Structure formats: C-alpha cells, structure tokens
Amino acid sequence: MKTIVVGGGAAGMMAAVAAADKGDDVILLEKNEKLGKKVFITGKGRCNVTNACDRDTFFEHVISNPKFLYSAYSALDSKALMDFIEANKTPLKIERGNRVFPVSDHSYDIIDAFKRALKNKGVEVRLHAEVKELLIKKSEISGVKLSDGEILSADKVILATGGFSYQSTGSTGDGYRFADKSGHRLTERKPALVPFETKEEWVGKLQGLSLKNVKLSLYNAEKCLYSELGEMLFTHFGVSGPLILSASSVYAGISEYRNPYILLDLKPALTDEEFDKRLIRELEAGNRKELKNILNEIYPSSLAGMICGIAKIDPFKRCNEISGKERKALLAATKRLKITISKTRDFNEAIITHGGVSVKDVNPKTMESRIVAGLYFAGELLDVDAFTGGFNLQIAFSTGYLAGIS
Questions:
Q1: DSSP character for 317?
Q2: Of the candidates 217, 158, 145, which has an alpha carbon nearest to the alpha carbon of residue 7?
Q3: CA-to-CA distance for 146 and 191, rounded, in angstroms?
Q4: Is 196 left (phi over 0), alpha (psi -120 to 50) or beta?
Q5: What's the predicted TM-score (pTM) here?
Q6: Closest Cα to residue 355, out of 328, 325, 384?
Q7: Could you give the 3-state DSSP secondary structure of residue 137?
C-alpha cells in the first residue's frame, strides 16, 4: 500500500509514522525547507505538546465538534502521545494546568523525536515538495501532482496541510483549496486564539499593563458566552493574553455579532459590598488628599491614573468630597469594566483556525473522506479547535494518528 501524506506539521508527521507502522510505503511531502515549522514556534518556542488531563477534561476544552474527535482521541490520547514522544528520546514534564512540555524547554526536541520515528519507520521525507493538485479518478484518489509537474501515484492520500494561522510557516490554505475542488464542504474560517482590537481609546493608553487574577466575561447581544478567571494584557490595539485568547475562540463561533463586548472584574475576590467598604476605608484614610493619590492602593499605578477618567470623576477632587454616586461609578469601573470589541486580529496573529473542512464530509472513525475514497484529513484543516493548553496539538496528533492507521 502506497500512502502520501501532504504536510509535515504535527498531524502530518504523526500520520506518516502511523501509516508506516502499519506497513505502508509512505512518502511525506512538505513544501517548506524543514518539518514542523509551526510546531517550532508553539508555546513561545517551548512547545506545549499536549495536556495531561483526563478524557472528560480534554473534551470540555474542545470548542468545535468535540464528538467528532471521540474515536481519534481513543486511538491516541495524551498518555499514548507522551509515551510515544518519550520512547523517541525526548523526555517530557508536566507544568501548571497539566500542560506538557519537553524537559529541555526547546520545541525542536519534539520535532527531533518525530524525525527519529520517521527515520526508524522508513518514511521517505521530501522537502521543498509543494503539491499543486490532487489526482482523483471516479471519486477515488490516485495520487498528487507537484508544482514542478511531477506526478506521484498513491493508494491513499492524507491531507494535513494546516489552516490559515501563522501563514509565515506555510499555512496558506492549500488544503482548503484541495478540499473545495474535490467537492467537500467548508465551514467559515476565522482567526481563533487571537487578540482583540477594541473601540475605547483608553485601552491603548494602558499598553503593556498585565493583569492577573481578574475575571473576564464575553457578551454578545447581552448574552454571556464565556466567563473565566486568569490573566490578560493591554496592547496598543486592544487586549491580549490567556483569557483573551480563550474568549476569542468562543467569539469565532458566533454566527452573528451583535454589540460584542467584554466585562472585566478587576477584583473578583470581593463582592460589590466588600469592595465598596474597602473604598470607603481608603477615602476616609485619604481625607483631604486628592483622589488620584489614593487609588494606587487599589489598582496598578498605570490603571489608577486611568480609572478616574473611566468613571468620569475629577482625579483632583479631594477624598472627603467624593459622593456616594461617584463611589458607585468607581465600583462599576472596577467590577464591571466594559471594553467593546471591534474585531479580532488577523490570521498572522492567530494560533489556530476556527472552521475548515466540514466534519459531515469526514468519517470520524477513520478520518476518511465521505466524498473521495482513499482521501483522509487530519489536523487544523478540519473544523475542530480547542482552547489553549496543548489541546490543539493533541487534536492534530490524534487525528493524524487515526488517519495513518486507517
């Protein structure tokens, strides 16, 4: 059996190893100059390769079409993936939130583990090999045609070309074009795990401010779609950081945007009443001091200088002159700080693509196309995505493995 795998990223490398392990004659085609370019930059170069959580927790973190992944995750769960990587001479460690990294903190060690596996299984790896089109006869795959005109015949072809995110790594949507041309449905593709651009001018003035232990809630048409505690960052264009990236994946799944916004609770450990009591204590202690001079006791310094403007209170007003109405305004700016979303940043800043090849056109038990016999899909190309924490790479490895063994 001759199998061609198109794409040398996480899903493609795993698919090639799995197919070769089943005895197939495998060729792995990668249009870049090296394998795993996107894997190399994940986790800020450390590669959060998976998440060592239990099965139920894994599926709680999958946003799009989790049921489609049941068979793939059963075929290769996080423990099996970790065992595979360590068996290929790359030791791993588990950090906060069950995130798994190589002990070395270098992503290239994960890539090297797969290179060793590919070599051991006898996979032929061809770099600078760009596929131009799929060769299909009577609804059955017969091979691929490369950009230089070379034709490669195959019994099976696995597409693992990635999505649109991080296009500098080669994820330019080739797989979507192949899928569309061969009759597969595509769901709308949007940037996910990506920063937000916002409307309020004051947000940009807080550029560089990082907030920890805040609560973020995402709303659309006054309906709360996501709420979580964590960290975030203000930027020159809007907001970013772990909480924002996760919220953006939920945002990508909204079919119609109707006044989307974020509410921040800067003091989630305090109730409204408790925060008001603290504010009263600070104001009483400040007495004749100007309001702006006591707010550093409550907020980070850069935010303290901005909060009066947000609450529409004169920062030079003396503490003993602050009215009950003004206290309520400070309370609202602290516990329900509204930030209006303009849009997400583009695919070049997105960690993952939301949307892709419709799972309705793919057999979840094998990853084989329901449209073209012998054609398989794996990884980000599919309409499946998850929150941060190693879950998206696990999806890539699991779907790649199932495609390979099938």
A1: S
A2: 158
A3: 29
A4: beta
A5: 0.94
A6: 384
A7: strand
d(Cα 95, Cα 77) in Å, to the nearest integer?
A: 18
CA angle 384, 221, 337 (to 5 degrees): 100
Q: Which helix (H) or strand (E) segment is 204 a member of?
A: helix 201-205
Distances (CA, A) of 230 to 170, 237, 247, 335: 32, 20, 11, 15
In degrees and rounded to multiples of 5, residue 224 shows phi and psi of: -80, 120
pLDDT of residue 167: 75
3-state SS class at 240:
strand
Q: Which amino acid is at 271?
A: T
- Alpha-carbon gap, residue 47 to 393, rounded angstroms: 9
CA angle, corner 396, sides to 1 and 399, nearest 5? 45
Please report the pLDDT score of residue 154 as a whole number. Answer: 98
| Residue 260 in tokens | 């989307």
| Chain segment 155-190, per-residue pLDDT in tens | 999 999 999 987 777 778 999 999 999 999 999 999
- Ranges of each domain in the chain: 2-190+350-405, 195-345
Predicted pLDDT of residue 171: 78
Which pLDDT score, from 0 to 100, does residue 174 have? 94
* Matching fold, domains 2-190+350-405 and 195-345: no
Lookup: tokens for 263: 């509410």
Rounded to 5°, the CA angle 197-10-80 comes to 115
**Three-state secondary structure call for residue 250:** helix
CATH number at 195-345: 1.10.8.50
Q: Which CATH architecture has domain 2-190+350-405?
A: 3-Layer(bba) Sandwich (3.50)
pLDDT along the chain (406 residues), means of 10: 97 98 97 95 92 98 98 98 98 97 97 98 98 97 98 98 84 93 97 97 96 97 96 97 96 94 98 96 94 92 91 94 96 97 95 97 98 98 96 98 98
Residue 228 contacts residue 284 (beta carbons within 8 Å) = no
Q: How far apart are CA 290 and CA 44, in angstroms?
A: 43
Query: For residue 165, what pLDDT is reported?
Result: 86
Contact 206, 376 (CB under 8 A): no
Q: What is the DSSP letter of 96?
A: G
Q: Cα separation of 228 and 215, whole Å?
A: 6
Q: How far apart are the first and last CA of the chain?
A: 12
- Phi first, then psi, for residue 321 (nearest 5°) are -110, 0
| Tokens describing residue 139 | 């609804």
